[in-house]
């Protein structure tokens, strides 16, 4: 029976007759490399250093220094270990596997045993670091989301973008980067997608090729598959901080000034209706979460979302989530249905994750019929734009309303608009805090109370600017007095704070 090929031979290297295969130079640590003596004309130290640097640069993470040439062999080994586990696992080991994440270390020990057997029989030659990485990867396949698991565990990564099985980008510190992480094929990626959706009762297939969902930690997931996606299954994961951010964190990040934070705290406690607007990825949901932290614990809060992302700290919170149609096209529960139902649930505050269509009309009516202190978000580039979008969304409800009637509804319902923007350097800023003063003729009157002014971009590409108060007194000061909220007398005087 012929001898199984070694790892070096699998990678296309020459068989050495007189000595066993040596570990490849790019994987060696510096102390190991010193003891390897190669003939100068065959393999110089300069070549070793060049290959080592190339391998490190190609890796997005220090623990993943596998050369591209080895990736297929490693994947072959993972599949072989998977098959061995399925075929040979004992009932006792199956019970440990059922326990899932809480038994991760025991499961890793079991995987290590099966991996050692497979490597011994297949004559695989892996370093200790590669063996540890192999066990971690298989553990992630069994318990987590496979190749995505290290990215999800990295707190510095805020977004993961999977463009088919072979291309995965991340957002880190506001910048996009291509990683060396990949899936084996489309089937492998679809298996991970099913693992995301199954606990949520959601589905994705050719008849329903796109879906919004969430992970267990609240991270938002959007999935779209062929035939709509021509690059293969595309997955976008927007991660959320494991620790709920506070207003002090946003001040520290430079998202807003301390005066703005004090003002927003007072506005929420005074039961103003607040609309947070901004573009995709500008931080609207994060700001909405922070604003909700100002709501008194005695209030009953009802949250309404497509995919539940808000994580409120209060005890009396009812979370509602919309539902898509079933295979027959029936049973869909929309945001609009939930807003209508929420009005019958005796809420003190209604928080709608985002208004996109006809639910805007129901939200405005709720704000105008005694549900003060409601919060919501919408996509728009400026405070003026968001009012135009609200008009359009109200008309999408199918009601033949005059434009003036719609604008009257909007101006009487919304008290304050927070405009959030993502700056060129990746930072997020609240660029405007704008009061909705009411109607003058057929026009809604807006008044900026605070704004962010960008002065310049420094040599590192960072935005340098300042927040400033416009020195204007808002018209809703009587609501502050009614709720016993006081601000310093000179609070609205014109001023600036550098950032």
Please tell me about this protein's structure.
With 499 residues, this protein is an alpha/beta fold. It has three domains: 7-142, no CATH class; 149-238, Beta-Lactamase (2-Layer Sandwich), CATH 3.30.450; 247-498, Rossmann fold (3-Layer(aba) Sandwich), CATH 3.40.50.300. The chain is 36% helix and 20% strand. The protein is built from 17 helices and 16 strands. The strands form two sheets. Strands 9-8-10-11-7-12-13-14-15-16 form a ten-stranded mixed β-sheet, sandwiched between helices. It is elongated. Mean pLDDT is 81; it is low at 4-43 and 56-69.
Shape by Cα distribution: elongated
Considering DSSP H and I runs of 4 or more, what fraction of the residues is helical?
25-40%
CATH architecture of the largest domain: 3-Layer(aba) Sandwich
Largest sheet: 10 strands, mixed
Give the CA-CA distance, first to last residue: 73 Å
List unreliable stretches of 5+ residues. Answer: 4-43, 56-69
| Tally of domains | 3
> So how many helices?
17
What topology, given as strand order, has the largest sheet? 9-8-10-11-7-12-13-14-15-16
- In round numbers, the mean pLDDT is 81
Q: Into which percentage range does the β-strand content fall? A: 15-25%
Q: Could you please say which CATH topology of the largest domain applies here? A: Rossmann fold
Number of strands: 16
Write down the CATH class of the largest domain: Alpha Beta
Going by CATH, what is the homologous superfamily of the largest domain? P-loop containing nucleotide triphosphate hydrolases
**Which class best fits the helix and strand makeup?**
alpha/beta
Radius of gyration: 28 Å
């Amino acid at each position: 029976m012929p001898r199984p090929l070694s790892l070096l031979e699998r990678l296309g290297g020459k068989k050495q007759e007189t000595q066993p295969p040596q570990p490849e130079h790019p994987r060696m640590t510096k102390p190991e490399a010193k003891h390897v003596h190669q003939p100068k004309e065959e393999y110089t130290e300069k070549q070793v250093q060049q290959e080592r640097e190339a391998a490190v640069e190609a890796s997005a993470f220090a623990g993943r220094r596998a050369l591209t040439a080895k990736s297929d062999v490693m994947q072959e080994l993972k599949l072989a270990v998977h098959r061995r586990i399925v075929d040979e696992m004992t009932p006792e080991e199956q019970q440990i596997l059922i326990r899932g994440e809480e038994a991760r270390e025991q499961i890793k020990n079991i995987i290590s045993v099966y991996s050692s057997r497979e490597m011994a029989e297949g004559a695989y030659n892996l370093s200790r670091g590669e063996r540890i990485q192999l066990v971690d990867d298989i553990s992630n396949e069994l318990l987590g989301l496979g190749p995505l698991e290290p990215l999800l565990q990295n707190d510095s990564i805020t977004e993961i973008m999977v463009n088919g099985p072979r291309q995965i980008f991340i957002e880190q510190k506001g910048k996009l980067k291509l990683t060396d992480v990949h899936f084996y094929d489309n089937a492998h990626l679809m298996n991970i997608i099913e693992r995301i959706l199954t606990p949520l009762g959601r589905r994705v297939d050719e008849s329903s090729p796109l879906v919004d969902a969430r992970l267990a930690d609240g991270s938002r997931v959007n999935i779209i598959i062929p035939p709509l996606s021509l690059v293969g299954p595309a997955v976008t994961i927007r991660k959320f901080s494991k620790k709920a951010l506070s207003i002090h964190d946003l001040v520290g990040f430079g998202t807003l000034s301390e005066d703005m934070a004090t003002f927003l705290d007072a506005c929420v406690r005074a039961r103003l209706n607040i609309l947070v607007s901004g573009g995709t990825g500008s931080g609207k949901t994060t700001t909405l979460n922070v604003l909700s932290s100002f709501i008194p614990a005695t209030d009953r809060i009802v949250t309404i979302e497509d995919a539940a992302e808000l994580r409120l700290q209060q005890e009396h919170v009812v979370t509602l989530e919309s539902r898509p149609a079933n295979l027959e096209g029936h049973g869909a529960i929309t945001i609009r249905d939930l807003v209508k139902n929420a009005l019958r649930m005796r809420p003190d505050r209604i928080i709608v994750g985002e208004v996109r269509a006809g639910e805007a009309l129901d939200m405005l009516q709720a704000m105008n019929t005694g549900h003060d202190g409601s919060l919501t978000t919408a996509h728009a580039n400026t405070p003026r734009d968001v009012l135009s979008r609200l008009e359009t969304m109200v008309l999408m409800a199918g009601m033949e309303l005059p434009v003036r009637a719609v604008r009257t509804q909007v101006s009487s319902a919304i008290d304050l608009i927070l405009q959030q923007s993502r700056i060129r350097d990746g930072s997020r800023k609240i660029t405007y805090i704008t009061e909705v003063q009411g109607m003058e003729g057929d026009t809604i009157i807006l008044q900026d109370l605070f704004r962010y002014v960008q002065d310049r971009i420094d040599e590192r590409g960072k935005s340098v600017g300042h927040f400033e108060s416009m020195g204007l007194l808002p018209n809703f000061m009587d609501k502050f007095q009614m709720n016993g909220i006081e601000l310093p007398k000179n609070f609205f005087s014109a001023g600036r704070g550098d950032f």
